[in-house]
User: Which sequence fits this backbone?
């Protein structure tokens, strides 16, 4: 890092700041600009997973494990498979988890508790819908 | 109480202490140098033109609540409110804004840094990687193998 740099786009902390304000589509484009940009925009791509939008289950295990530590927010978690894929990704820095299911199968609960155990130092908010 | 600041090119600015304290760096310096404020605080990376602009920003935002600067970016969800004054303030060319980003970064004026980075995010909006490279004169340093890997990894966002 060069403190006298005259180009803010050469500073990783600036790229990281910019990544907070781009859309997912733009983050994907930015991540392909050059290696330094990849490093700083990939975390924005993985920051929020919405199971209604992202087919995380179809993602290759290698890719999943590589980026799972970037995941912070998970939405529309509905099935055992969703919890399983998060476990497989080694996600360990989740902050917010939104469940959208009223399932209470022992299997779902067991995996859910496992996921919570792995994320217990970072999790801030869990939303569980009320039983009808 | 007044504080004096000196730009890298030797120009001295006198501002209210609470205005200067929007800069985390200056705030910390003032704590350390409490007893010794008879000389201006030197800002070695910030020129007079940029410093004047930073001070103008800090003057306007002197009463804003301090933002909670989380290293994570949930703030993306609720974008910082830009008032008319901010919109007017950001009507500058790219070069000036980049100088301001650098100044805000070295002085750690967080809200101004965020404003500048939002401006930069707006520039790259809906651009392709090639367009971004051309605009900012960035070299494509990926090997063909790495390019393949990215092609393949980015697929998941479209699945």
Assistant:
């Amino acid at each position: 890092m060069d403190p006298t740099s005259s180009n803010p786009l050469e500073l990783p902390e600036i790229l990281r700041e910019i990544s907070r304000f781009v859309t997912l589509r733009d983050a994907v484009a930015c991540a392909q600009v050059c290696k330094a940009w990849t490093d700083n925009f990939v975390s924005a791509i993985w920051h929020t997973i919405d199971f209604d939008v992202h087919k995380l289950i179809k993602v290759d295990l290698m890719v999943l494990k590589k980026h799972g530590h970037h995941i912070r927010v998970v939405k529309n978690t509905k099935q055992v498979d969703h919890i399983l894929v998060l476990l497989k990704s080694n996600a360990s820095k989740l902050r917010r988890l939104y469940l959208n299911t009223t399932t209470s199968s022992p299997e779902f609960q067991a995996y859910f508790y496992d996921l919570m155990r792995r994320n217990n130092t970072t999790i801030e908010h869990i939303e569980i819908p009320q039983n009808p | 109480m007044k504080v004096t600041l000196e730009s890298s090119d030797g120009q001295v600015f006198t501002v209210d202490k609470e205005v200067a304290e929007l800069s985390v760096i200056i705030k910390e310096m003032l704590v350390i140098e409490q007893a010794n404020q008879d000389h201006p605080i030197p800002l070695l990376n910030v020129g007079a033109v940029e410093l004047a602009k930073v001070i103008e920003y800090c003057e306007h935002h002197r009463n804003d609540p301090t933002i909670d600067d989380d290293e994570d970016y949930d703030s993306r969800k609720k974008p910082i409110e830009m008032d008319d004054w901010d919109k007017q303030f950001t009507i500058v060319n790219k070069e000036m804004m980049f100088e301001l980003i650098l100044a805000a970064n070295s002085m750690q004026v967080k809200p101004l840094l965020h404003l500048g980075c939002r401006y930069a995010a707006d520039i790259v909006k809906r651009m392709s990687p090639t367009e971004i490279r051309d605009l900012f004169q960035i070299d494509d340093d990926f090997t063909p193998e790495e390019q393949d890997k990215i092609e393949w990894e980015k697929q998941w966002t479209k699945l």
Notes: Chain A has a mean pLDDT of 90. The interface with chain B takes residues 3-9, 11, 13-14, 17-26, 28-35, 37-38, 44-45, 47, 54-56, 58-59, 63, 72-73, 95-96 of chain A (CB under 8 Å). The first helix of chain A runs from residue 12 to 19. Residues 31 and 37 of chain A are 5 Å apart (CA to CA).
